[in-house]
Amino acid sequence: MTKEQYLKQIDAVIENGRYKDNWASLANHKTPDWYYRDKFGIFIHWGLYSVPGFGNEWYSRNMYNADHREFEYHRKTYGPQDKFGYKDFIPMFKAEKFDAEKWIALFKESGAKFVMPVCEHHDGFAMYETDFNRWNAAEMGPCRDVIGEVKAAAEKNGLTFCGSTHRAEHYFFMNTGRTCDSDVNDDTYRDFYGPAVREEAYNRDNIFKTTEDTYAPGASVEWLEDWMVRTCELVDKYQPKTLYFDWWIHNHTFKPYLKKIAAYYYNRAEEWGVETTIIYKHEAFPPTVATFDVERGALTGISPLPWQSDTAIGKCSWGYRFDNEYKTARQLITDLIDIVSKNGVLLLNVGPKGDGSITDEETAILKEIGQWLKLNGEGIYGTTFWKQFGEGETNNEGGFFKDGDEKNYTANDFRFTYKGGTLYAFQMRPDGKDAVIKALKKHPVHDFIINSVTLLSTGEKLDFDRTEDAIIIKANKDFNSDKPLCFKVELD
User: Fold this and answer.
1) pTM to 2 decimals?
2) pLDDT band with cut points at 50, 70 and 90 for residue 199
3) DSSP-derived secondary structure for 336-368
4) How confident is the model over 183-207, as a mean pLDDT?
């Protein structure tokens, strides 16, 4: 199908479907029950940038930028940019150890319920089979439909398949290659490197200021139509149950196309008989049209609408980096609890190596999270928020890119979730002593009754005293833990 034919198909699906390309029609699109129930998924950043494994997943841009250390590293390691460009990593991207079944088995062991690979990053190399980009993993490099294999393995093993596309930013992403002697300036590769628009607004680090500004110069109509067609082709070929976009789509020029994509995707989902949602950042969509995401951060309180936080096990990069630093399983478990207590969902990223293997560090951390969830997952999966998200003095700082360091939780910090007449109280940093929860104190009037308190990880009923100041849950030997404890509080 040509681009023009696809544009006509998009219009026809919208015309014949329930959802139209306006916010009034798209508003109040229901958050999928499966997504709200499952709470925890795996994000995957894997592509050409995984081959050098240096800097981060922006290697494709920074290797052409003399202001960044990737520029000189590339020259010393691979040669000058006009002799060895980003495209020359493709033959090195062999993915000889990539095994979708092995990936999914690990993700399932971690306790994750859905999986979201990045189908195409800003670098323009598609990890899936597509009619609109000859630079793709099915025809080059691994010569395998990576996304198709991940989808098949996920669905075979009971995980929900989701997809992410970061192509929108490719409009300008490779433009640093215009500032030096490089293969980006060779029109032979224009269909790979993209317009690489060289305007002051997009030059080097100016892009951060520009892309934050909703009203700054945006993309061309030609680019936006092409981006929309590629996105809708991805939807049709792989039927992801969520569709995630990275930043910049909040720019004013994208708005008409976002409405069309949303209407097309939601109408297609109705045809398939499945529940879907779009996941977005910043103010790209109005509330109730899609699901809001906070990158490497969280909210400070309960959101009335379900939301998502996406973060990575690696501290320094989303993609593989040979000298990456990693968060601990305990930090990620406390993040998950905090997010769920505020009506959120966690999407946790791994960055496989260029050969397709997942690092030993990430493997160990995922297994450790899975061990904890095996014992305590009842307090996470299928829950909703309580009347307050928690108690204690420790809370996260709201906003993006705020989750690098582990929070200094104490034994006085708790988070709450709720399900079917049962309250789950998580002590975020046990100290081996009695747990004292002020929020569950005994009230003189209009009180709820506590029937029992159970340590969820062992199933043991615990003794407790309930006073007008707090509930005091009596400690036993299992209170000595380096990870959060979950108290199952059955109400009457």
Assistant:
1) 0.97
2) confident
3) HHHHHHTTEEEEEEE---TTSPPPHHHHHHHHH
4) 89
Q: Which of 485, 482, 432 is nearest to 454 (CA)?
A: 485
Average pLDDT over residues 303-325: 97
Q: How many CB atoms lie within 10 A of CB 446?
A: 5
Residue 28 has a pLDDT of: 87
* Tokens (6 digits) for 332: 């990620």
In the three-class reduction of DSSP (H, G, I as helix; E, B as strand; rest coil), residue 265 is classed as helix
- Taking the CB of residue 330, how many other CB atoms lie within 10 A of it? 20
CA 96 to each of CA 12, 349, 355: distance values in angstroms, whole numbers, following the listed order: 42, 21, 5
Q: Could you tell me if residue 118 is left (phi over 0), alpha (psi between -120 and 50 degrees) or otherwise beta?
A: beta
CA distances from 419 to 73, 249, 425, 455, 489 (A): 53, 36, 12, 16, 11
- The β-bridge partners of 417 are 424
Residues in the chain: 492
Q: Which contacts of 66-74 are long-range, i.e. CB under 8 A and separated by 24 or more positions? A: 66/179, 66/180, 67/204, 67/205, 71/180
